[in-house]
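Subject: for your reference before the review

Hello V.,

The reviewers asked for a structural picture of the protein, and I figured it would be easier to keep everything in one thread rather than splitting it across files. Below is the amino acid sequence we used in the manuscript, unchanged from the supplementary table.
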Amino acid sequence: MTETTTATTPRPRHPIARGFLWLGSALIAFAGAFWFVTATVDLALSAGLYGTPGTYKVSSCYDTDSSSKNSDYSCYGDFRPDGGYATSEELEDTGNDYPDGYIFDARRGDVPEESGRVQRTGVWGVAGELWQVGAAVIMLAWVAYMGIKPPAWKPDPSGEPSRRTRVADRIGIVFIMGGIAVGALSWVVNFVGTFVY
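And here is what came back from the structure prediction:
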């Protein structure tokens, strides 16, 4: 007696489950888009594309993470614009516990969204912001992948990956892996930076 096996096609998700999935994806997409915009604005400031150039002198830094599990430093100090007078400014989410009196190049935002915000410039400043851009790209790429890829209960008639499936796979490989690579590079540079400051 010969046994035959037939491939079973997954059943469609329940409408409620699909509704929650779309709602969750929409929330992730909104969070990723918002994070991407704010991160790229900070990155542009650190890259010196806009803002008032100057120097920042650290007075003191403190750990904003009360749990003491993951250090997240912010600093108080003075920002002195080129050719201007120093003003007291808080440097938020620096990622580093700078020593008192440490001086580095910085820029102060001069657009409404970034008014008064100070960011370190140069290689270390850019590296400190890259991981956020990478994380936002991963979130957006995952949502795009899930939205483009055909559902499992709608197999390709020819048995070969459809154009839609290939596009989704390319997005997953290029953008998700690219975001991971950018984030990893940022973390490595920041780790090296802790021994340089």
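For the response letter, the relevant points are probably these. Residues 189 and 195 are 10 Å apart (CA to CA). The chain has a mean pLDDT of 81.

Happy to draft the paragraph if you're swamped.

O.
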